[in-house]
From TrEMBL:
<dbReference type="InterPro" id="IPR005119">
    <property type="entry name" value="LysR_subst-bd"/>
</dbReference>
<dbReference type="GO" id="GO:0043565">
    <property type="term" value="F:sequence-specific DNA binding"/>
</dbReference>
<dbReference type="GO" id="GO:0003700">
    <property type="term" value="F:DNA-binding transcription factor activity"/>
</dbReference>
<keyword id="KW-0805">Transcription regulation</keyword>
<dbReference type="Pfam" id="PF00126">
    <property type="entry name" value="HTH_1"/>
</dbReference>
<keyword id="KW-0238">DNA-binding</keyword>
<keyword id="KW-0804">Transcription</keyword>
<dbReference type="GO" id="GO:0006351">
    <property type="term" value="P:DNA-templated transcription"/>
</dbReference>
<feature type="domain" description="HTH lysR-type">
    <location>
        <begin position="1"/>
        <end position="59"/>
    </location>
</feature>
<dbReference type="InterPro" id="IPR036388">
    <property type="entry name" value="WH-like_DNA-bd_sf"/>
</dbReference>
<dbReference type="InterPro" id="IPR036390">
    <property type="entry name" value="WH_DNA-bd_sf"/>
</dbReference>
<dbReference type="InterPro" id="IPR000847">
    <property type="entry name" value="LysR_HTH_N"/>
</dbReference>
<dbReference type="InterPro" id="IPR058163">
    <property type="entry name" value="LysR-type_TF_proteobact-type"/>
</dbReference>
<protein>
    <submittedName>
        <fullName>LysR family transcriptional regulator</fullName>
    </submittedName>
</protein>
<comment type="similarity">
    <text>Belongs to the LysR transcriptional regulatory family.</text>
</comment>
<dbReference type="Pfam" id="PF03466">
    <property type="entry name" value="LysR_substrate"/>
</dbReference>
Length: 304
């Protein structure tokens, strides 16, 4: 039995603490996972995993050998990848991303990715909520946040700027907006949460926190975008969604001299030590792709 594969399977079980979860993640049967783990233990001459009815954990020998085994797998994997042409890299990546970023930004990136890695299969889980990446078998998540989960590895790759927007029809029948406080007299569309709807705006050294009225809320940006397009009120939208509609005259950018809070965009994954070649290829590609996008699409001059 292949020693490298056996070592990879054992390391994955050590991470998931479940033979069943590893079988699902690696797309193999549970008995096959068991055989690979037993082969690795026989090869290394020691019992490395303690099995109980509820949980799988490392033995003391497993804890001692884990880092050394991981180092050996990493070196072997890097050697394989360096000798392997990109078109020969095969495997599967399960990716979690918001719907709005997924269709507007990720899909164009994946078109380029597939040209370089045509044998890598991709499954996209589109939702605007935090996920348990291990339990839901997510390899890589794209999240917009200034407070990433410290239990995950976070690689910043871009910055998300936002705009306040409303349709011309809504503005024609509503009070004028010349300063942030005017927002309190308007219908606003907010992101679903359990607290107050407070929009933070900044202009040079001035900072204002405006509590707005949100009779309509949603947990997804494109829903709020289309609410504004339908004339329901003002919404806060990421530039990558709003700019196209502003150029077409369907939305108006409100208070352009005021800057909304910027958010960092991250690639998140559970561990540096358990990256398959397809996942590693996806991370490296997206970091390079969005670095190029940032250089070619600078923020509007009014933000500077």
């Amino acid at each position: 039995m292949d020693k490298l594969t056996a070592a990879k399977v054992l390391l994955d079980v050590a991470q998931t603490e479940s033979f069943t979860a590893t079988a699902e993640r690696l797309d193999m049967s549970r008995p096959m996972v068991t055989r690979y783990v037993e082969a690795a233990e026989n090869w290394l001459g020691s019992r490395l995993l303690q099995r109980t009815t509820r949980k799988v954990s490392l033995t003391s020998a497993g804890e001692q050998l884990l880092d050394e085994l991981q180092s050996w797998v990493d070196q072997a994997q890097q050697m394989e990848e360096s000798l392997m042409p990109t078109k020969a890299i095969t495997g599967f990546v399960r990716l979690s991303v918001s719907m709005s970023f997924g269709f507007s930004q990720l899909m164009p990136a994946l078109e380029k990715f597939r040209q370089r890695y045509p044998a890598i299969k991709i499954d996209i889980d589109a939702q605007d909520r935090a996920v348990d990446m291990v339990a839901e078998r997510i390899d890589l998540a794209i999240r917009t946040t200034n407070d990433p989960n410290p239990a995950l590895i976070g690689r910043p790759f871009s910055v998300c700027y936002s705009k306040l927007v409303a349709s011309p029809d809504y503005l024609a029948r509503s009070p004028s907006i010349t300063q942030p406080q005017d927002l309190t007299h308007h219908a606003c569309l907010g992101y679903k949460n359990f607290g107050r709807h407070v929009w933070q705006l900044q202009q040079q050294n001035q900072h204002q926190e405006i509590e707005v009225n949100c009779d309509i809320t949603a947990n997804e940006a494109t829903v709020l975008l289309h609410g504004s397009l339908a004339g329901l009120g003002i919404s806060m939208q990421p530039d990558y969604l709003a700019d196209e509609w502003i150029k077409r005259g369907k939305l108006v950018w409100l208070l352009p001299e005021w800057q909304l809070m910027t958010l960092q965009m991250y690639l998140l994954y559970p561990s540096r030590k358990h990256l398959s070649p397809p996942v590693r290829a996806m991370i490296d590609f997206l970091l390079d792709y969005f670095a190029d996008q940032t250089h070619t699409n600078q923020p509007n001059a009014k933000r500077e």
